[in-house]
Amino acid sequence: MEGNYYMIHDYLIFIGVFAIFFFLTVGIYLFSQNQKFKIRNAKLSEANKIIEQRLNEVQLEHIGTKLNPHLFKNILNSVQSHAYQTYMSLDKLANVLDYILYESNNKFVSPKEELTFALSLIEINKIKINPLFDFRIKSKIDKSDELFEEKVFAPLISVDLIENAFKHTDFLAQDSFISIQLELEDRIFTMKVSNKASLKNVLEKEKSGFGSQSLDQRLKMIYNNYYQLTKSSKNGIFTAELVINLGEFYDKMRYS
User: Full-prediction pTM beyond 0.90?
Assistant: First the structure.
């Protein structure tokens, strides 16, 4: 009996050791497989990010190819409509064309460069309106702002709001006006454009054309959560305001 007891005891010890070894082996195997899956998922996630980034770049390039010819057409029409102001117009036009040809292909420009372009574009558009027309422009630019000359601004962002203001304004109405405000302060860029529009033009704005859609797409793809674009229409007055937190966006680019 005592011999059988020791045999059973040794057998149970063997079974226990085997079970421990078995579960330990399985545990190591599962752990290694889990690590492989984690590495594989990380690689897939990184690949997806690269693909998504490239897709965004392709979309932005596609938008740019559509935007530039449209902008050229509007500018040339403005210059042609008032030949007597050709000299001044061509001077501003040269600045605008240089910017479009040499700077707009860059992923980012400085606020200084974009604001210079925006002011030239406004001057070109002004030649097609009556000198007595109520046109208001206010520029509050802090040139000492640390981001004033940093490459943090997407080129041609200001085009859509400026072009729409001149395109959809009811110039025949007595109370008609265009108001453009540009501001760079505390690393935040603000652009507010208001104009008196006819009922027909208000409806056209609400339907939104390519320019408006491309602006929304670019802002979302480039600035993500660091911008706010609001549009409103009340009593025939259309207002669009764009706010970009260039500071937080710049910090993200610098430390990411």
Answer: no
